[in-house]
Amino acid sequence: MRAYKAYTPNWYHVLVWVLYPLAAVLCCYLMQAGILGRAYTFYIPEAILGVALCVVEVFFDAFSFGGICSKEYTFREYFKISKRGAGLFKQILTLDIIRRILLFISVFLANLAIGLALGQEIGWGDLAETCGYLLWNYLLCSIVIFITRYTNQLILCMCGAYFCMVFGALLQTVIVVWIPVPAIVLILVQLAAAIIFGILTVRAPMKKMEGSFYDTQRS
Amino acid sequence: MTTENVVIGKNLVKKYKGFELNVEDLQIPKGFATALIGENGAGKTTLLNLMSGIRKDFTGEMKFFDEQLDCFDDSIRERIGYTAPTNLFLPQWTIKQVEEMTELLFEGFHADRFQELIKELGIPAEAGKKVKELSDGNKMKLMIANVLARDTELLILDEPASPMDPLMRDKLCEMFREYLAEGEGKRSIFFSTHNVADMENVTDYVLLMEKGKIVETGFVEQLKEKYILIKGETEDYDKVKEYIIGGSKSKYGFEGLCLSEDLDKLAGVNVAAETPTLTQICVKIMKEYSSLQSKGEQ
To answer: How many angstroms separate the CA atoms of A107 and A127, rounded?
Structure first.
């Protein structure tokens, strides 16, 4: 925790741990209460916000970890010269993933609570469908972050996020309409993929750090 | 003179595409400031990277601290302070974050000492100041403050003087002297530099490197005894050129180094001999090995 706190600035902590989740929850309320557009049922804000959260997440990631998997990323050397460096670097990356998971889950739960408080009827089917949205968006977010960490160009990261979300939405439509897979299977597949990409977003920078000890090109 | 060594390397070979570092015998004396001098691309940074632990793929043997610890032993990292030629810290980090991160990365880091050094070095450190907002010189000062605030026994500094103004270079030399004096013979500094003249007053020992190899080593005073600077008329150049190292001639005369032991062989030729400065020794030797040719040379 201390390493993550030291690695990222204080304003960033306030933004990503407090303001950003609060803003997401507020949007859920405004959408469900009909203040922002017509009164949406519980799963619509979840779907819309899922996409928005992904784009914002990629933006934040580009700020903190932009280019972390690229060859040109030289700032890992400060971690390389310390015996504790690799361990701390891994902790920082892991905590960032935990934060992202907590964000997606807390927004989902807050959205659900708002729906119930506003008197919406939410059945198990709605919950399962919304869980699917949540997982799908989280999975896409992990994939985009995994890819965009290979560049430190913010504009490329944002374009990557945009195209991945569009492609993800199309792919989801194709799966739902043309591939008759039971919802539970789809959820399990998405969960497995989300876990794999979660692990990869930590392992890839660690592998890069390890590999940089053995670079064959002169720096 | 018998001295203990803080680092000993044998047959160090590191190959890159189009370049090979090949150091047969590396000895860095303990308790002194050793300068690593060489032209661009000579392999100075490669050697420092191997020593600092940034690169691990090399063959050969390197031992630290009285030959007790291998270079792959992680415990030596606590005892070594390293600064890179470019910024080591994330650009968006504030100076406070640099302090907090260093505290986590290294056991023997003293935050209060770090703050004192920041003031002493005149680094603009108002609250929230980011690393990217500092000039290159101030970034280097920040790295130096960072290593000096740690309990180390060896500093490995890659061109610490390059981005600094002459006044700051003088201050840097003073801080190096203080660091060595406080260590009472147990602390050593190994730094690369192109600013030989500015760093001469802190340099005790020299390693001259060319094309991946160490071509000359020695204490400054020994080198000044070993070589002599000679100057003469252009028409005499051909008579002496076999004894000259890194010679240069123009229509006004010639100048070059020669071994002091060869001075007798120049008897009968009208040359003026004088003790060379460290810069002159380094430049002439580098010239001898360099692929660069100056205008008047054949």
So the answer is: 14
Model's pTM, two decimal places?
Answer: 0.88
Instruction: Give A-chain residues touching B52 at CB under 8 angstroms.
Output: 81
| Structure-derived torsion over alpha carbons of residues A5, A6, A9, A15, reported in degrees to the nearest 10 | -10
Under 8 Å between Cβ of A137 and A104: yes
Q: What is the pLDDT of residues B19-31, one digit of tens each?
A: 899 999 999 999 9
Q: Which residue has the tokens 């399990």?
A: A188
pLDDT band at A218 (very low <50, low <70, confident <90, very high): low
**Cβ count near A98 (within 10 Å):** 11
Residue boundaries of the structural domains of chain A? 2-211
Pairing of strands B5-16, B19-29: antiparallel
Selecting from A75, A85, A218 the residue whose C-beta is nearest the C-beta of B19 gives: A218
State how far the alpha carbon of A188 is from the alpha carbons of A7, A172, A195, A198, in Å. 34, 15, 11, 15
- Work out whether strand B59-64 and strand B80-83 pair parallel, antiparallel, or are unpaired: unpaired
Amino acid, res. B130: K
Tell me the count of A-B CB pairs closer than 8 A. 72
